[in-house]
Amino acid sequence: MAESGSTARDRSATEGSTLDRRRFFRLAGGTALGTALTDAGTGAARAVPGAPATARPLPRASLPPLPPLPPLPDQLSGGKVTPPAPSVRVPRADGPPAPATVRAALPDALPFTFHGRGYTAVDLPERLRPWRDRPTPWSGVTPDTTHTYLDRDGVIMYRPRRSAPGYNQPVTQIQFGLGCAAAYRTTRNPARRALYLKRAKAQAKRLIDTRVEARGAWYFPYPFDFTHGSHSGISYRAPWYSGMAQGEAISLFVQLSLLDGVTPQERTLYRTAADAAFASLLRGDDGDPWVVNRDGAGYLWIQEYPVDAPGTSDRTYNGMIFAMFGLWDYARATGNTLAARLYDGACTTVDHYFPTLRNRQWASYYCLTHRIPTPSYHQHHINLYRQLHWQTGSPRFAHMSDLLTDDHPSGFLPEGSPVVLAAGTHTLYRYDTDADGDFVAAKRDAELARTWTVRLPRTTRATANRRRRIMGRGVAYRIDSGPYAGWWAGEAHPRCYLLGEYLPTDYRPGRTLSFPAGSKVTCHRYGRDRGAAATRTVAFDKPSGAPFDRRAVVNGRPMCRISAGALKGYWVFAGDVVTDGR
Question: How far, in Å, CA of 313 to CA of 55, rounded?
Fold first, then answer.
């Protein structure tokens, strides 16, 4: 791993010292491997394009599980919740409305013009649709945490602390309802299914009962004051509203209306509620309340924290995209052309502003206005852009998800993940992290110590429990056993790499890569035991395209799996090809 900045040397190890080979083998928990590393490409590759060659397989770890999705964002994190002034009475409409009355009042035009690139909401298999990846676990069906609990109606409530009174918090209630709906679809136990559905319905009922009817739409109020600690301008007095809640509410109502466990009367009510929530996205910032506006460059925004009308507000990325999932649900369920146009405009905004979201080789920014790198939200951005790829079928969003993954990959590794170290000299580092090896903002991954020389006479293996980018440096592995547990080795294929396939992403639809003209490119094929079974070196007089359906870190490098043609099943290093014209 490249050195950068000032360093603090390990005072117990003199410059040029060596690590005893037997001690390192004990640390690695494995034996020396007598074979050359297959992926180095020496000896096995053929100079003739397309000629196959057999390579000796190297034992590989079984494919680990995907990194767990991070907990859903806490919309109130980083801020202070306080009771509203005693004189404040949040307006509300009690009880269900007459459906015909609400539908007759719906807006029938876009609030303003905005940019669009023709993105469409394509149909998806059930498992890829919004929120299906977030089922509420059975252990969480009756929450009781510092900040959340169920009231007597089975509605999740937010409290600043255990001793404080609880508040309706729309995003928390909506996401809990969506999670219960997701679990209802896949749970087989009848009693559990019944409770999941009951919980989801309870959240929807609370939203309907506490709605505010204004401007021909339904809005879902926040009945407490809120001030953000680091995002200037976010200082709300109850009642206030959020575009994130409005969009997510559409998803909840649409999805409930499609479940088999609802009555015809409930189905009608949920469809009415979805229509009325959608109407809020057809009202611009020329009145109050509002959650949608257009920035000075003509791009549409659904504002998680709308302030300073007609200004730009916070322009929060994750809140925008979560709200867009509601547009996808509504457009697919109703065929509404206005929803389709809003979805196109929102996708166009997210596409256009991706360069301002991205923070090269580190965590992406939370919002456009404040541009604060936020590692806790980076994995959300990766997952959200991946879902936009599925929802639109566009490779642009898949490419953006790839870039974010390479910039700041998830540090998740199963205990004992194998790392191959080639014969030769290696340097190990210690960084200032938390006890698990994760980044701490106050510590900034400062270098604490290094071993100047680790000399290995042959290829060997160590084990690691973290793979992540070190701030200001490259990707590194945290060794998790032996006397050097807690030390980091820099990823550098083929000298030091994680053995196996990690961080896989499947694409729907598949994507296209192109081999550059006049360059020799080596492709690898892996057997059922995950060992390298063959390599092929190809070269083309003109750029040559091939489809690929999967990308992953394979043996320490981002690789693309070709899905058709003469190279079907072969993996190629992403750095050797161009993907989707980029």
Answer: 57
